[in-house]
Amino acid sequence: MTVIDHREAEKHDHTHGPGCGHDAVVHEDHVDYLHDGHVHREHDGHYDECATCSCAHCSDSCATCTCTDCTCATCNHNVCSCAHCSDSCANCVCSDCTCSTCKHAA
């Protein structure tokens, strides 16, 4: 599960979902909805702002971060650095994973 700081988003006049008019991005175990500079995810009947990249030089959402040297464990675009894997870190299931940004690595 993505660690969030539980910042509740502004109230909405609609429910995010297919056809709501906002771009949707799968981010780890949830779907983020992008609009007006915000990245919202449903949480316990309301919407929260999703996680922000923890890299020192980035302030983008983890769902949309494009840092080329990203080390943030919750960013969507990180790719496993194991020699035998090409999955994103969010989806990697290598049993012997050594990648520092994969969620399941020991």
From TrEMBL:
Classification lineage: Bacteria, Bacillati, Actinomycetota, Actinomycetes, Propionibacteriales
Protein name: Metallothionein
Superkingdom, taxonomy of origin: Bacteria
Species assigned in the record: Aeromicrobium erythreum
